[in-house]
From TrEMBL:
This is Ethylbenzene dioxygenase alpha subunit. SUPFAM superfamilies: Bet v1-like, ISP domain. GO terms for molecular function: 2 iron, 2 sulfur cluster binding; dioxygenase activity; iron ion binding. Belongs to the bacterial ring-hydroxylating dioxygenase alpha subunit family. It comes from Plasticicumulans acidivorans.
Amino acid sequence: MCNANDTQPRLKRRPVGRSVEHLEQLMDLEHGRMSRDVFWDRDIYEQELERIFARCWLFVAHESQIPKAGDYVSTYMGEDNVLIVRQKDGSVRGFLNTCPHRGNKVCFADLGNARQFVCNYHGWAFGIDGALKGMHASSAYEESGLDKSAHGLHPVAQIDSYRGLIFATLDPQAPSLAEYLGDFRYYLDAIFDMDEGGTEFIGGCVKSVIQCNWKFASENFVGDILHAGWTHDSGAKAMVGGPVAEVHKFPEQSYHVNFNGHGWEFNQDIVGNAATLGDKEIMKYLYVLQPKVAERLGELRSKMIGAISSCTLFPNSSFLPGQNTFRTWHPRGPGAIELHTWTFVNRNAPQAVKDAWRKGTMMTFSPSGVFEMDDGENWEYSTRTNSGFVTRQQDLYLGLGHETRLTDTGLPGNVYRGQINEANQRAFYQRWFDLMEAPSWGCVPQRDVATMEVKA
């Protein structure tokens, strides 16, 4: 999207929108089959950057990271580096972190407070509102008739927030954030609105690189509880002296829910994830809080606050209640991601509990954490193994499982009971396919929540 008063002529761009041919032949969700090219092919990846990461609403910051005017964070939307900046009027704006003169970054810090952003190369200076304020040897530009109002930082198309989570989209035609999250907001409230003080990020951001395709990480958190009892068994024993709870033995307490590719699997044990941190103060805090959450949000959601569960917000942000890790999987080609991880806590929680959560997330889900090493190794080999030519000719199985669709619970979204299923994964890839096939938002199929069939 250009600046509103930009009257400068524009160069003809390289055509975009060329669709990978026969994408429908790479995925058969009805029969649970998927081509390995989905995780390996470079053309598919480039189309993901265009039709998913340049189109969807992506998590870019938490309100607690930018409380004052001039506060900013630097993050990514796909491979586009962006600045998210608190304005003087309290609003939040976003801009591409690139100078319109020669393309250098205008900010190299991850976060901070600034009165302006200045390019190291030729001294072009921009206000926190993105407007070009001046430059080194400005008279030379003025003599050429440069219109400074037409050369500010390129803005993101839309930016909005929900329960402290700030999202942005690079597509001016994207639906509103409220529509994009839709019914899934009911479940987000269980974690990010369980306490009247809301949440905050603490302890800074941990960055790491995993040599895997971004979809392996996203679909793991969208609802793959089944791997936990196998992959994380030894890690859980090391943390708490016992195995991961076999939640699949209690299907009546277990749910998979999804909406527009967002997915959450959860148990109703209140503290299952939190228990893996091995901290009694966290457990006590959650048990005391649970009846208050029941009054605020109802009994079912009050049992989700630290339970065994995981969630992905399509396409590439995930979190774990209880362990309180929030992460974004930034794509770096078909075979790599840059993982940004934070610890989130209730703002009103005692400081000792906040400190315990920060320590706990480092012990479990960080580059040296006992659980993250397990996952990272699996995802890397799942990606790397596909380099073989003959291997890539073999389909992958996206299991149909034994899920039971619920239609009479009153819960929003597409709801299943029981843990032995891949319903959320199939919904995730259905949303991926719909976006990859559609040349614009207006062409993205609208699916009935109850049947996942395209609406008439």
